[in-house]
Amino acid sequence: MENQASSPARSDDRAVVYDQPNAVYAKSTKRGFDLVVSIMLLPILIPIICLLYVPVRMSGGPGFFGHKRVGRDGRIFLCWKLRTMVPDAEERLRAVLASDPEARKSWEADRKLRNDPRITKFGEFLRKTSLDELPQIFNVLKGEMSLIGPRPVTPDELDKYGASRVIYLAMRPGVTGLWQVSGRNDVSYSERVMLDRQYFATMSLRVDMTVLVRTTGAVLRRTGI
């Protein structure tokens, strides 16, 4: 789980300053909240992760998948998940985008495919239950992510945030967040940016605890990716 040194931050990102109503919580208390809750959850999550790892590993390929995402201040890190796709997922994606104009249009708009041929049967279950994201607890412990925050994005996706990218770069991406509990299957990029701006402006212990409770409900209802 090695941190990457490259950064997509641009000089003009730091030229814009937004006032954050609850800056004390954002800069100090929030990190303590992340650590306390994560440590409390570890005895529960580690056995579940190990149990789920076995069938993923037996399907061929690695059990975990680390994908590059943009963190706070533009730092690139590996965001960890249980693997939900076939080992040759990149090749299959290129083939689909080259042969299916509708799929390419959907991918360019939201970075998603309907009836994605890359996802395994067990991977589909992991995604619907959001269990594939459990290994991100280690990203939280390392300080690369927060329990609650904006959805982790790739450097290319960050360009879709436009002038609001400075807000994204001011926060650690979250394992869950307003995007998770607001119908994440159908949230467009413009709506995602709006939700991230809303979270930035209202960030507090009460908001984070509310999102965690609502996330539990979303997981039980299987409203995953």
Can you characterise this structure?
With 225 residues, the chain is mainly alpha-helical. The protein contains nine helices and four strands. Strands 1-2 form a two-stranded antiparallel sheet. Strands 3-4 form a two-stranded parallel sheet. A hairpin with a 5-residue loop joins strand 1 and strand 2 (76-82). Helix 2 packs across helix 3 (101-110). Mean pLDDT is 85; it is low at 1-5 and 11-17.
Topology readout:
Blueprint (H helix, E strand, L loop, with lengths): L22 H36 L5 E7 L5 E7 L6 H11 L1 H10 L10 H9 L6 H7 L3 E3 L6 H4 L6 H5 L4 E3 L12 H14 L2 H16 L5
- What is the CA-CA span between the terminal residues? 23 Å
Provide the low-confidence segments as ranges.
Answer: 1-5, 11-17
How would you spell out the order of helices and strands? HEEHHHHEHHEHH
Question: Strand content of the residues, in percent?
Answer: 5-15%
Q: Biggest sheet, strands in spatial order?
A: 1-2
Q: Outline, from the CA principal axes?
A: globular
Can you count the beta strands? 4
Task: Give me the number of helical elements.
Answer: 9
Largest sheet: 2 strands, antiparallel
